[in-house]
Amino acid sequence: MGALVLSQGGTFEPPGVDSFFLPPIFGEVTKPIVLVVLSAVIVGAYFLIATRNLKLVPGKAQFAAEYIYDFSRNTIARDQIGAQHFRPFIGLIFGLFTFILVNNLFGIIPLIQYPTMAKIGFPVALFLMVYVVIHTVGFRRHGFLGYFKHVMFPPGVPKPVYILLAPIEFLQKFLFQPVALAIRVFAAMFAGHLILLVFTLGGQYLLLEGSALLKPVSIVSFAFAILLTFAEALIQVLQAYIFAVLTANFIGAALAQDH
Amino acid sequence: MENKMVLAAEGHNPILPAPAEIIVGFVAFAALLFVLYRYAVPRFEKVYQERSERIEGGIARAEEAQAEAQRTLEQYKAQLAEARAEAARIRDDARAEGQQILDEMRSQAQEESDRIVSQGQAQLAAQRSQVIAELREDLGRQAVDLASKVVGESLEDEARRRGTVDRFLDELDAASAPSTSTNS
């Protein structure tokens, strides 16, 4: 779409914020909205089908599905929350990891090429759910005042320090940490997609509009775009992992007996 | 910028979330969580459970079997020891009994042989005395007959005759007594 503009113009229009705001497909429905629904359907359908007939000795397909589940369950949820309390949160962590993973990977899947988490609305939606879960769990475990005490007055600190520490801890737990959770994945996806756009559109511009001498340089630009796509793939998996791990970590912290 | 894009004119802020996206994102994720919690997680957990039960159950069963084998082994050992002791006891008893029987039989045989020997001796003595008596009578008669023939007359006087024969026989007895004692 940007390419169309460029070929008409002749001067290079660098990709920016507007590259993420595509015109709606119909009505209010935009591409990221379609993609986010698609991702939920993909993940849900995959695990519905994969778990339909589980065997004690897994086949290849079952092994793959189980590997993802096992990773979310044991490596993320159990290690962060603790073997005693992690069971109710397996589904949440598992869902977060797979859902964000698929949405992020949309960024490099040909033809789709749009990381939905680059639209802040979706990380915010996840953030809201996680926020509610973390603090509900905390209030349930420690009681209303007990949870505030648990958050704001970590033990082992000289008393006067609490004047400074208590508000900081409060803001940290109730605002910064969860908000950062949402912004982290958004920013990573946003920036990553932008970089890919810069190299792809830049290469295209050089190829189409550049002088004969500049045209070969577009190869370098495309090469970088491809290279960065691999880096992007790594970051996308990593961000999904980080979101899930931090969520599990916050739940674990809210559940912890002592700070 | 000669870009005529309508969207750009609105001045998008990437930090401001669109309400529609939040709602759709939330609903989509909630629906996914529902599916995962309702189907995927329980199914996976069931397999995990079965697997760990299979392993733990196997171990428990193996331990049980081992304990059972140990118990049976001890039982067999005890039974074997008992049987051995029993056999030894029976053997000793039999030996003692055999010895006893042997002794009894030996003494019985001894008695029997003694009895037979003494009986034989008594019979022999009786026959001997009978033979002697018969011989004495016969010898006496023949000696008288012979003497009658030699003298040519009958020795009618029975009292004298009996006295003579008896005296003769007594003399004969006295003469042959040493020889008969050595013979017997």
TrEMBL record, chain A:
Pfam families: ATP-synt_A. Its main location: membrane. It comes from the Bacteria. NCBIfam families: ATP_synt_6_or_A (TIGR01131). The gene is atpB. Key component of the proton channel; it plays a direct role in the translocation of protons across the membrane. It is found in: Cell membrane; Membrane. CDD domains: ATP-synt_Fo_a_6. This is ATP synthase subunit a. Keywords: ATP synthesis, Cell membrane, CF(0), Hydrogen ion transport, Ion transport, Membrane, Transmembrane, Transmembrane helix, Transport. Belongs to the ATPase A chain family. The keyword Transmembrane helix applies. HAMAP family: ATP_synth_a_bact. It is a multi-pass membrane protein. InterPro entries: ATP_synth_F0_asu, ATP_synth_F0_asu_bact/mt, F0_ATP_A_sf. The chain crosses the membrane at residues 32-50, 89-114, 120-139, 181-207, 213-231, 238-256. One of its GO terms (molecular function) is proton-transporting ATP synthase activity, rotational mechanism. GO terms for cellular component: plasma membrane; proton-transporting ATP synthase complex.
Automatic annotation (TrEMBL), chain B:
The chain crosses the membrane at residues 20-41. Residues 59-100 form a coiled coil. Its main location: membrane. One of its GO terms (cellular component) is plasma membrane. One of its GO terms (molecular function) is proton-transporting ATPase activity, rotational mechanism. Residues 157-170 have a biased composition (Basic and acidic residues). Residues 155-184 are annotated as: Disordered. CDD domains: ATP-synt_Fo_b (cd06503). InterPro entries: ATP_synth_B-like_membr_sf (IPR028987), ATP_synth_b/b'su_bac/chlpt (IPR002146), ATP_synth_F0_bsu_bac (IPR005864), ATP_synthase_B_chain (IPR050059). It is found in: Cell membrane. It holds the Pfam family ATP-synt_B. Keywords: ATP synthesis, Cell membrane, CF(0), Coiled coil, Hydrogen ion transport, Ion transport, Membrane, Transmembrane, Transmembrane helix, Transport. The keyword Hydrolase does not apply. It is a single-pass membrane protein. Component of the F(0) channel, it forms part of the peripheral stalk, linking F(1) to F(0). F(1)F(0) ATP synthase produces ATP from ADP in the presence of a proton or sodium gradient. F-type ATPases consist of two structural domains, F(1) containing the extramembraneous catalytic core and F(0) containing the membrane proton channel, linked together by a central stalk and a peripheral stalk. During catalysis, ATP synthesis in the catalytic domain of F(1) is coupled via a rotary mechanism of the central stalk subunits to proton translocation. F-type ATPases have 2 components, F(1) - the catalytic core - and F(0) - the membrane proton channel. F(1) has five subunits: alpha(3), beta(3), gamma(1), delta(1), epsilon(1). F(0) has three main subunits: a(1), b(2) and c(10-14). The alpha and beta chains form an alternating ring which encloses part of the gamma chain. F(1) is attached to F(0) by a central stalk formed by the gamma and epsilon chains, while a peripheral stalk is formed by the delta and b chains. Belongs to the ATPase B chain family. This is ATP synthase subunit b. The lineage of its organism: Bacteria, Bacillati, Actinomycetota, Actinomycetes, Actinopolysporales. The gene is atpF.
